[in-house]
Structure formats: structure tokens, C-alpha cells
Specification:
With 297 residues, the chain is α+β, with helices and mostly antiparallel strands. It is built from 12 helices and 8 strands. Helix 2 packs across helix 11 (251-265). The N and C termini lie far apart (56 Å).
């Protein structure tokens, strides 16, 4: 799934509510999404991205041999000159999307959609449980392989990747590369020896800011917008509480903030040394300090 498709999907999920009536049309304004994500949307690619979502189908196992094959969108319309996309979801998929929104964060879903290796997905789930500690416990190779279904606890199936070089090449290194490129984590691993042979593994995990920050669909659109505004101010090193409160409570300044960050990220404004100072100067706020004032002695 492309970054543009993911933006559209996450924006749609942010507006989805379990009390919505069948046939509800969800309106997404392209300009608002550009400001929210800080990414420039190429309008020539917008049509293909929406078409790809309309054509994308999902296979859902319902148990006891039953399954559902369903498309995500029932319809999509782009309203020219208004920069608006109107989307209608497939009703049979609605309960699954509600469940998805309830049980995944935007970061987790972004990882699921971007990680193509099944082993990367399982290792991502594993390190997520240890993110606040920074390292996992030490797993024996047997337990680790059980978790990844590389070894059958009952011994009925042949063990996979018995040579450590094959395990590294086909499982570990691929998983580390994908997780580091597509999720909010940077991970590494260390193999432990007992005697002369490798017998266990430990993962190390550090939080990072992924290249594509997902739209936080678990929040309401207004809350997501305010969160992104706060993050933008932190990135600009504008952290004085009074100044932050003033900007966040002034709609015109919020619009200016999103527009400024968008233009900096897309190279339309050059501000390499002090972008926060430039923003304050442009909007008559330069007399106020960017940083929290130190108390007088």
C-alpha cells in the first residue's frame, strides 16, 4: 500500500464511527490532509490511489471453513475544484473496520500494512511488548522458533533454518530491515552462545520517528489535528507554555502553522537554521520567547 493510499485509509478510519448509518459518505478535504500530514499530495496520483483502494479486496476467515471476500470501498468520488474526496465503505466490511480501529493504533496498523515478511510482523509484536524497557528477555532458539512457527513443539514437522546463517539471512536480517524502515522502532539483535554454538537471542528496541507519520485514526479528527499542531510546535522548538496556548487557541495561527510546516517540508520555504524563529517573526510573535523563560535569581 502506497503512502498516499495509507493516508486516505487512515483519514477514513479517523472519521468512522460505530453509530454511522449505512451509506454514510465520508468527505476528505485534500488540503486539510496535506496540512495534517505535512506531505504534498500529487494530484496526478490521487486518482490512481483512490482507484487502487476501490479495487483492493480483503479475504477474511470467519471460522469453520467460512470466509468473506470483500472490497474496502463501495464508491469513491473526487469533486474537482473543491479538493474533496467522498468515500463510501462496503457495509459488509464496516464491522471489521470498527474492530480494526478499536484494537490497533495507527502505528501498529501502519506496521502491519508495510511489513511484508510474516516473521517481521511477529518480531514487531514481540519487541512492542518490551519498548519501554529497551530490550527483550533472552529467548532460547527453541522458544523463539516456536513463536515464529519455525519449529513444531510436537516434533511432527521438520525444523526450519537449522543453520544460523540461514536463520539470519532469511528471517532475522529481513525482519530488522523492514521494522527499522517502516515502523516507529529501531531494533537490533544479539545471538548468545553456550559453549561453541549459538543457543539464544535477545532483541534491542529504541523508539524512532518513522519516515511516514501515520494519521492517528484512534483520535477524533479535531484531536488528531491538535496533536499534530503540538508536535509541529515542538519540532520548531516553540515550547513556551503561554505562546503555545496562544497559537493552539487561535484558529488563524493554527492554519498559518500547518501551512508553514508544510512549506518547509516541501522546500517552498527555506529555513535551515531557525525555522521556529522565522515562523514567529512572520506572524508578529517574534517578541515572545520560543523557550520557557528561566526564573529570575
Amino acid at each position: 500500500m502506497t503512502s498516499l493510499e495509507m493516508d486516505i485509509m487512515f483519514a477514513l478510519l479517523s472519521r468512522l464511527n460505530k453509530n454511522d448509518k449505512p451509506g454514510t459518505m465520508y468527505r476528505l478535504r485534500v488540503h486539510e490532509l496535506e496540512q495534517l500530514t505535512g506531505r504534498e499530495w500529487n494530484y496526478s496520483r490521487l486518482g490512481p490511489a483512490v482507484e487502487a483502494l476501490v479495487g483492493r479486496s480483503y479475504h477474511i476467515d470467519e471460522g469453520e471453513g467460512s470466509w468473506l471476500k470483500v472490497g474496502m470501498l463501495a464508491s469513491a468520488e473526487y469533486i474537482n475544484h473543491h479538493g474533496v474526496i467522498e468515500l463510501e465503505i462496503s457495509e459488509k466490511l464496516r464491522p471489521y473496520l470498527i474492530d480494526l480501529k478499536s484494537n490497533f493504533t495507527s502505528f501498529q496498523l501502519q506496521a502491519v500494512l508495510n511489513l511484508t515478511s510474516k516473521y517481521a510482523k511477529r518480531i514487531y509484536e514481540l519487541v512492542s511488548q518490551w519498548k519501554d524497557i529497551g530490550e527483550t528477555k533472552i529467548y532460547s532458539f527453541d522458544n523463539f522458533k516456536y513463536m515464529l512457527s519455525l519449529k513444531d513443539p510436537a516434533g511432527k514437522e521438520a525444523e526450519q533454518y537449522t543453520q544460523i546463517s540461514h536463520l539470519r539471512k532469511n528471517v532475522l536480517d529481513i525482519a530488522v530491515k523492514q521494522i527499522n524502515e517502516h515502523t516507529e522502532f529501531t531494533i537490533s539483535y544479539k545471538l548468545g552462545k553456550v559453549g561453541r554454538s549459538y543457543q539464544n537471542i535477545r532483541f534491542y528496541v529504541v523508539k524512532q520517528e518513522p519516515e511516514q507519520l501515520p494519521i492517528p485514526f484512534e483520535l477524533s479528527p479535531d484531536d488528531a489535528r491538535m496533536l499534530r499542531a503540538r508536535n509541529n510546535l515542538e519540532d520548531l522548538e516553540i515550547i513556551d507554555p503561554t505562546l503555545v496556548k496562544h497559537i493552539l487557541s487561535t484558529e488563524k495561527l493554527l492554519e498559518k502553522l500547518f501551512a508553514f510546516v508544510y512549506k518547509v517540508k516541501t522546500g517552498k520555504i527555506k529555513a535551515t537554521s531557525n525555522p521556529g524563529g522565522l515562523f514567529l517573526k512572520m506572524h508578529g510573535l517574534a517578541g515572545q520567547k520560543k523557550h520557557v523563560s528561566q526564573p529570575e535569581r
